[in-house]
Write a structure and sequence with these properties.
This protein is of the alpha/beta class and 424 residues long. It contains 15 helices and 17 strands.
Amino acid sequence: MVDFDAIRAQFPILDQQIHGHPFVYLDSGATAQKPECVIEAESEFYRTINAGVHRGAHELAARSTEAFERARAQVARLVGANSAEGEEEIVVTSGATGGLNELATAFGNASLGRGGEAARRFALGPGDEIVVSKAEHHSVLLPFQELAARTGATLKWLDLTEDGRVRIDNLDEVITDRAKVVAVTHVSNVTGAITDVPPIVRRAHEVGAIFILDACQSVPHIRVDVKALDVDFACWSAHKMYGPTGVGFLYGKRDLLEALPPANFGGSMVELAWMDRPAQYMEPPARFEAGTQPVAQVVAAGVAAEWMMNIGMDAIAEHERMLTDRLLSIGDIEGVRILGPANDRDRVGTVAFDVDGVHPHDVGQFVDAEGIAIRVGHHCAQPVHRHFGLYASNRISCGVYNNLDDIDRVLDTVSRVRGFFLGK
């Protein structure tokens, strides 16, 4: 039995008051707070073994490199990429946004003929199609929208059901034999809905398309197994999985990483460079890690991954399911509308809502005055808001450190919003 009260005690930032109230943090969908072990791991790295990795022969460089690669292995295990070559399938990026942009840029480079014959599978041109969904975060939508614009490909999208889930009943119509890339979110950062990924992956592979998974909102909350899902690439951020900011990870099947041309260039990613001929690049993952890596952050992210696995992803998901079940009663408050599924089936503890007659920013300020942090705005996902006829909303998103008292406090606070602003 996991003691979640003891887990909560590992987060020092929660032990404070905001506006005279005990602090409640319900904005994990934006960034998760960090347990003491993660904070200490980053600090300890700087105190004891700070050095560049894969580029020095001295003792600290060796220790730093060992810690860096151990963290890569820890992250690989977290997402099920722990096969013989699993560690070599994890690329360090600046975050999920960085990873998705790196893929889009690399596909664009392949479209220009870079990477030779092996990279032709990534090349796009007029007549080809890129498929996303209307549920996408802008970090998925915009890089592939730009890729379509640069290559002449056509951008298409999977629509949403009435309650905001990605539709899979018309996959054959949307993902045709012209599709070259399919990029879809695993969990919506607005509705909290878990996408039914397997049939989309199967359809993408039937037509020979590359499938890319945005796992930013799934890796922290549910068990993710990239091998079982059979995705070609996946991206996620460390800071949402209780790790540091400024670092993320890109998973790619080994054969695809070997064929993919690099998107960024510089030190560490090149094996041989000449003045009068093209460079010879390193094998993956080094090929995609140009420049000085965020070593301390990667090491701390590895600690975060190990910390999550020690708790158990199934235990984390069950804990958050219990919170979600209580949180969804927010829809019973008069004038409050949930954006997304109104039950806890195939969803995580992320609940966006609208308060009739009260602007989301006013709601957010009212809630903040009670010492409760939630998200306000369009959450970098404007198309899904338009699906619900809105431009912005409020969002409550749970983490492993939240408890039912947190949920009851935010429910009570939201229940008083319309009375305060509208006298109702």
